[in-house]
Amino acid sequence: MNFRDKEITYSQRRRKLCGIFGAMIFLLMFMLVFNFEINYTAAQETEAEALTLTLNAASGNNCDNLLDDAYTSTVSFSGKDELTVTGSAPMQGIYIKWAAPGADWRVSYNGKTVEYKGEEFLHHYIDFGETADSCTIYFDSDASVCDLFAYGEGTLPSNVQIWEKPCERADILVFSTHADDEILFLGGVLATYAGQQGLNVQVAYMTNYWNGAKVREHEKLDGLWESGVRNYPVNGDFDDIYAESLEGAMSVYSYDDVLGFVTEQIRRFKPLVCVTQDLNGEYGHGGHMLLAEAVCEAVDNSADASFNSESAEKYGIWDVPKTYLHLYGENKITMDLRVPLDKMNNRTAVEVASDAYLQHISQQWCWFYVSDDYEYSCADFGLYRTTVGNDTGNDMLENITTYEEQESIAESSRAAEEESRRQAEEALNSQSKDGADTQVQSSETKSSKVLPVVIVVLMAVVLLTAVFAYSNYMNRRRRRAGHKGGQNGSARSRSKAGSVRRNSRGNNGGNRNSHR
User: Fold this and answer.
1) Stretch 182-202: mean pLDDT
2) How many whole angstroms separate alpha carbon 134 and alpha carbon 85?
């Protein structure tokens, strides 16, 4: 093998080694990136851990009851008290379950402070937006707390309630007499339209439990959250009092006050659909009857500004397009609550409502249960009133355009109007340009008598200049051609003279030869 063959072999080996080395680097980089993506995804999908907390109140209060996950035990704090919370790992936020709403308080972490005036939410999760080893809660008013939790990094557990404020505008407004009625009798509506479809579903309760079994205020939130409702409910100022008939209910409640409350909620939330309970009170509860009567009268009159004028002045009037009553005998619909709902972990609406009712722990001793195939079925409703036509199917939103859809249509309309405006402006600009062109043309017309003369003169000058230049060019060529011709003639004369002299020499030589 000569030197060149060795050089070629070495070059080939070097190329192979480089290729193998490059492939190894590529494979290593791929594995690193792929592994990072897996780890990142896994971190995102990891459920956040409930941290072990150390609690220290500036007042010296024993705070153990805040860690027992029970609504029946509380810890009270006076105004100006402080509670320092330290977690077993960095926390991404805290979850407070108040014994009652309305507290003024602040929370500080990592040098930042967030303030809350008149706490709205009974269950309130505060996301720090970063991790903190500890935080301090400052009570600016007297307050009572049931439970306190903190969570590490990751996805929050599904039972951590992150409430949105009550709806600005409700697609569906559900009126419930008591906590749990909205699940037992109207739960299919909540699971279908709030949980699965994610619509703006607002729940309004006629009664509250602040003068009685306060635990039921917590249970109603737990049940709504399990149903997929995300907008915080509203309560009337009426206590839960049992009545066996409509007359009995009217003797313990002021019907006018209930009617005013219902009318105000309709005007406040401007629902596209109202849903409430049975005029016969389901199993004969007088409070259910009273609320259903009030809803019917309110939807019949809420568009009249003289009816309950105080709420009309506050919120304006509203005519509800559709109103459904539970078990109503006319224009009946039967909702299909046996379809798996992918947004609700593939549970059916009946299953969701059943799980939601289990959140009402204090009521599990009762005989009530959730079903779509017994006399109090949560699937059976009737259309009491409509301004958009009767139903042909079993969808409460038939003939209804939801607020989100309305916004989408309005946005498309605004975009179309903007495009139309843009085209109009372009047309106007074009007309202005055409007008300017017309003025130019008019100016040109005025000078049309002068312009041809100028053009002719210019053309004549150009032609004369071209003729003069051409004449000069041809004269130069002739002079050069004559000069070359003279040189060629002299050369030919010299050549001819030389030829004569050579011939003369030849003749002389011939003469010399003849003499010899």
Assistant:
1) 98
2) 5
Residue 217, token pair as written in the block: 């205020």
The C-alpha atoms of residue 85 and residue 457 are separated, in whole angstroms, by 99
Judged on CB neighbours under 10 Å (0-12, 13-18, 19+), 245 is middle
Torsion of CA 259, 268, 308, 331, to 10 degrees: -50
Contact in structure between 384 and 332 (CB atoms under 8 Å): no
Q: What is the pLDDT of residue 485?
A: 52
- Residue at 19: amino acid letter: G
Question: Six-digit token pair at 157?
Answer: 């557990």
Using CA atoms, how far apart are residues 218 and 161, in angstroms rounded to an integer?
Answer: 11
* Higher pLDDT, residue 454 or 395: 395
Closest by Cα among 127, 124, 119 to 92 = 127
Q: How far apart are CA 61 and CA 39, in angstroms?
A: 43
Strand-pair partners of 208 = 239
Structure tokens of 474? 């041809």
- Measured in degrees and rounded to the nearest 5, phi and psi for residue 273 equal -140, 135
Rounded percentage of the chain residues whose pLDDT exceeds 90: 72
User: Which run of H or of E encompasses 237?
Assistant: strand 234-239
- Give, for 109, the enclosing helix (H) or strand (E): strand 105-109
| Nearest in space to 389 (alpha carbons), one of 379, 375, 399 | 399
Q: How confident is the model at residue 30 (pLDDT cuts 50, 70, 90)?
A: low
Higher pLDDT residue, 314 or 512? 314
3-state SS, residue 257? helix
Q: Can you list the pairs that 29-37 forms with residues at least 24 positions away whose Cβ atoms lie under 8 Å?
A: none
CA–chain centroid gap for 238, Å, is: 37
pTM for this model (two decimals) = 0.76
Nearest of 190, 166, 220, 200 to residue 326 by alpha carbon: 190
For 117, the 3-state DSSP assignment is coil
pLDDT band at residue 199 using 50, 70 and 90 as cut-offs: very high
Cβ atoms of 146 and 118 within 8 Å: the answer is no
Q: Is the pLDDT at 193 greater than 70, yes or no?
A: yes
- Asked if residues 412 and 419 have their Cβ atoms less than 8 Å apart, the reply is no
Q: What is the mean pLDDT of residues 217-232?
A: 98
Q: Which amino acid is at 515?
A: H
User: What is residue 69's three-state secondary structure?
Assistant: coil
Q: HSE on the CB side for 459, CA within 13 Å? A: 6
Contact 52, 150 (CB under 8 A): no
Secondary structure element (H or E) that encloses residue 234, with its range: strand 234-239
Residue with tokens 């192979």: 16
**pLDDT tens digits for range 312-327:** 999 999 999 999 999 9
Average pLDDT (192-214) is 98
172-176 and 273-276 strand pairing: parallel
Q: CA 9, CA 98: separation in Å to the nearest integer?
A: 82
Chain segment 328-343, per-residue pLDDT in tens? 999 999 999 999 999 9
